[in-house]
Amino acid sequence: MISSIVLAAGISSRMGRPKALLDWGGKPLVVYQVEQLREAGVDEVIVVLGHRTDEIRRRLKDADCRVMSNPAYHAGRAGSLRLGAKAVNRDADAIVVVNVDQPRPASFYRELIAAHRSEAAATRPEFDGHHGHPVIVAGRLRPEMLTATEETQGLGGVLRTHQTELASFPSSELCLVDVNTPEDYARAAERFGLTV
Q1: Domains of the chain, with CATH numbers?
Q2: What is the mean pLDDT of the chain?
Q3: Do residues 51 and 60 lie in contact, with contact meaning Cβ atoms separated by under 8 Å?
Q4: What does the pLDDT read at residue 180?
Q5: Chain Cα centroid distance, residue 62
Q6: What is the pLDDT of residue 152?
Q7: Residue 149 has pLDDT above 90, yes or no
Q8: How confident is the model at residue 195 (pLDDT cuts 50, 70, 90)?
Q9: Beta strands 94-99 and 135-138: pairing type?
């Protein structure tokens, strides 16, 4: 079973508006992410919200996902990771951890999932010597994700504990696309052939 956690709780301060609600081909970015994960064969998608939860939840009402709300989203992403990990099916063989502001098409997710091997603690896409996103984490690491903290640097801390068990997946520059600012948004949309 393949699960996924979409982290979408932040306040999007550099963007100036919720990144989850950015227009992405005529739909909110968070809806696009859920659809692409499901199309790639992910069995369950957990979306963790925080800032403007009610507004974003309404936009997700027809999306094939479960929505969790992190009231302590101001404290950092580790709390959202813990909440997502708690909601993930205990039988998950792998968990795709996705930031809402890193759009990827279904084909990208499919390739990443296919590249992940059960013996790896996690598989990360890599381009030109840089590790990108998302990361696919072995289901056996779920208990560690449940105890991740800001002090231990969240998912990064979990992965560091298993440094020798990490796999890299040769990818394209797409694994480095990140939408943090209006300029990033414009560049990413152009990369995807979208008008914003």
Answers
A1: 2-191 (3.90.550.10)
A2: 95
A3: no
A4: 93
A5: 19
A6: 84
A7: no
A8: confident
A9: antiparallel
Distance CA 196, CA 192 (A): 11
Distances (CA, A) of 54 to 70, 160, 179: 12, 35, 22
Q: How far is CA 122 from CA 21, 39, 65, in A?
A: 29, 21, 23
Predicted pLDDT of residue 76: 86
Rounded to whole angstroms, the Cα distance separating 185 from 113 reads: 26
Strand partners, 169: 125
Distance CA 134, CA 137 (A): 10
pLDDT value at residue 151: 85
* SS3 of 43-111: CEEEEEEECEHHHHHHHCCCCCCEEEECCCHHHCHHHHHHHHHHHCCCCCCEEEEEECCCCCCHHHHHH
